[in-house]
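Student: Please help interpret what follows.
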Amino acid sequence: MSSILPQHRIERVRYELIKRKVTVSKIERTGDGFARISFSGEDLAGFQSQSFDDHIKFIFTDAQGQTVLRDYTPSHWDAGQGVLVLEFALHGAGAAATWAEQAAVGMTAMIGGPKGSMIIPAQQDWHLLLGDDSALPAIRRRLAELPVSARADVLLLRPAALAAWSVPRQQEWQLQQVTEPAALLAALRQWQAPAGNGFAWCAGEGGLMRQVRSILLEEKALPREGVRVAAYWRQGEADFHERLV
């Protein structure tokens, strides 16, 4: 008989892998260094995204005419309206940031996936959400989907030059934003898991996330089934993603 708690039972859902053409229908600046871009199109019929850390491939053509693929989290999917929202960081020097800076209504791109969803139950005694800017869209979506009464501790690494993130705040959400990786690790070491059973979700740069994994599993002895850590990117590599826990 399995000893995994109900809060830690991740439901895995698989989807047919389909490439879809999408068209920019709306562009918003969030005020915290991101562009929130809405896409629509007939090809989005049947699209699914049931988890806040789902990933799709965003496929576009750069200024040199080269095809570029990048991983993105669907920030919002409105099946009724057929609108998919992605958030693009604008302060990077990469091809995707350039594309988003120059995006205009009517521009087209392709998306692929997601291949599936790993649905982490929202009913937890507490939630730990930790990450850098690459994880911010997923964290923002998770908070938007949690019950108002949920206990959520958020540890966020953001460049000092950027404004604080924008997200509705609830009474039981504790947010700490730091500007250096060492400060993020220090904040995590100071964090104490609240009473009860919860889930720790963390994502960001690969080397940093390996240290985060060690702190959570070894120093804090959280149950492995209650922790998910992913490398959303790695220094010197493009289009990188790796699950660490």
Observations:
- Residues 215 and 221 are 8 Å apart (CA to CA).
